Amino acid sequence: MTLAPATAHAQDSDDEEIIVTGSRIAKKDFISNSPVATVDAIQFERTGAINVENLLNTLPQTVPGLDRTSNNPGNGTATVDLRGLGPNRTLVLVNGRRAMPNGQAGIVDINTIAPAMIKNVEVLTGGASSVYGADAVAGVVNFILKDDFEGVEANVGYSSTQKGDAETINANVTLGANTSDGRGNATVNVGWTDRSALFQGDRDFSETAFFDNIDNTGLEPGGSSGVPGTSIFAGGLGSFSDSFGVVFEPNGAARPFVTSGDVNDFYNYAPVNFIQLPQERFTISGSAHYEISDHFEIYGEGRFANNTVSSQLAPTPIFQTPANGFSLDGNPFIPVETQRVLSDAIGSGVDTDGDGIDDTASALLRRRLVEVGPRFNSDSRNTFQIVTGLRGDLFESGWNYDLSYSEGRTQSSTFQNGNVNRGRFDQALLLADADGDGNVDLDANGNPSCADPSANGSTVGCSPLNLFGAGNISAEAAAFLQTAASTTDETVQRVLQANFSGDLGNLKISEDPIGVAVGAEYIENGFVFRPSQDVAASTIAGFNGAAALQGDYDVYSAYGEASIPVGFGITLDVAGRVSDFSTAGTHYNYKIGGDWAINDQIRIRGNYNTAVRAPNIGELFSPVNEGFPGGQDPCSAAYASQFGAIDSTAVSICQATGAPAGVIGTAALDTASGQVRALSGGNDALNVEKADTFTIGAVLNPSFIEGLTLSVDYFDISIEDAIGAIGAQTILNNCYITADTRGAGSNFCGAVVRRADGTILSVSTQSANLSALDNEGIDIAAQYSFDTSDLGFDIGQLSLNYLGTYTIANDFQVSADAPVLGCAGYFSGCGEPDPTYRHRVTAGLAKNEWNGQLTWQLIGSVRNGNEVDGEYTAPGNFVDEIGTKHYFNGSVSRSFNDNLTLTLGANNLLNSGPPVIGDNDEQANTYPATYDVFGRTFFANAKINF
Question: Are 667 and 245 spatial neighbours (Cβ–Cβ below 8 Å)?
Fold first, then answer.
């Protein structure tokens, strides 16, 4: 792994001009004025990284995005997220051109890039919109693929943890040939990957969902209040006056719900969740080029990937107040004494036969539908992209051209098992009372029937639903509830580019010519999402509902850049771009930068960029969809337990927004499973995001230490009008808690809808240009290599590489009148852990046929929560801080001859376990994308060349 300016391929030939990510101007010995980290292809072999995100997520410039552990949240894709600003602000390129995106957000699934075809990966941090257009706000990740391979190469890889699980198998073959006249080459690769599932129940730290205990002094078993026996939380149920509610025994009797201690009534949903998503991938990649003459070279690239990735969750929890209530009087599933207690607490007020028991009841029922089985989601994606082009010299002018057209499609199909139909759930709870006497009708065997016996879209007729006690739902009732759900979507992208580069000849300031690149680009993006009926209508419980979506936009742009040597070792770089978006109008951005080679040992570099990101299709056109992010009602007991009792002003806002006085501060308002129903949607009035990025640094090659290159770069990325949907918990906090924004008449409170009993029905979010982001820090990189014989002993060539990032600030502000949230050095309050310091150190030793490598990844300590306007207040969780984590990985390779190379290695050599967290985790009681959850993992690779 190297860092520009000493990119390995820059030294191929004294006369060769090259292009490094961040510019389209080719130069000899190109020196980037932005930090560019280069990951060499050999690193994928020596780290056992079968999927590219496994390696990229270890770089200090990245914050882990979605990966193989992303079960919930997750969508079966893998993403790269520079600086933690979001994968939608990281532009992914393949050979300098836009990679085929996936989904309504237009984010690239890097699962679609075959690792065996990668020559190297260049990671540029900082805005690059002037060169590449919108989306390059945080930076660019450019995958440069092999296009000149000759021969046959076969690779087989295998990995497994020391427990013998989480296995992955990878096999691929690359074939390449040059034409007989040496003017062309064709290369093709076919690959297959199979990754097995690993469950949270397979690891001690994740087999039980943990809560903070009631006084935050430790962790205790937790889970969901949606239990297999059904629970009702109503703030007091007659003789069961425990404010936490009741749970039903198998015989239908009710007792108080035990909410704390090592033995409690919460449902442990963890064991059946995946902690490694199973994946099967098939890829075909190819490229070809042929030089007809110096002026005409035709080329083409083609990539296809089929990815099938599954996720699995515990059986569906349904939290629902039946539309017509549920039958109470005479219900054979509920003992009479329990009927009376429920009648007193949640009865309908209608007692037809005067026996003191209401005919029906109405309450929020919380049931884990284990009889239906776990929720299983299978995502199958087919992604292809074809690039064709023509390039060459423009006659004898010294200029060259590159004309290309790219078209790609991603077609996805999702199939879901384990969903239930909400309407049929209501229907099966209301039992027949044909004579209207207020009592449920029973047949000769004492069995009830549905008041509405119709199939209602099911393949079977209605069967009465006995929710009252674990295991009491009949197979017939479970079959009636079940509903098949599926979705399909298609993403389309077309890109037409014309690029010209050269120099201005005698029009120059110093001895060296002025390099220039100009060009034009047309991009067309389209997306269509087709859900099945239940998904579209959000009539399912299990997975989230989502309405149909269709949208498209295009953008015309033109750019120009110049590299101007002015003498005295100083080169100025300027660039500008104008883009006309069909959805957001015309926008301009530019770049001013340069470098100063003071001498052979010291080079100063820096640049200032403006960047833009256009709203994507989902942000523009998405209809209202539902989701269930983590969150607590500030008016509830759970919130008070975690953050402290709310003040009198917040209490009055709770009442004004629909929470009855008698339940404020009680468990009756606790959110189901610690989740809030959030309704999100697009906004076709969105404008572009605008960013300013600034970097300045120095590159040192000290003569007194031959072979050492050191660079230090300061960066600052500021984004205005950032597009985002404010998180549900942020809306709730700003409505009730935050002094500068709270108030019953505020826009934040207007987004909160409560039921009649005061519980939150939904929190409405919508995409808007409302946020400000600022990311500031220092990147440090060093490379050093030397022959150990220079030290008096000969054990080979030793190379050391260091990449480190110190984050000064990572701030987020929802709106101008909202507080500034500081995320640098914290976890939970802003999502994924964002330590102030992290690094990756690689040491390599090569001698003859042997190569060894050891890497050290350091993830700095982080505290729970975040800063608010520069002040930190501990949230009060048991796990207040995660200490510094160290991961060591090693491998040894041996080339037996010109045809065979074997690599053996292990990741997480010290078998370091992840931090175990309670209420403030992401999933699996930790943050599995940041911290290793697999333990010591062994891998082996064999490479055969013919």
Answer: yes
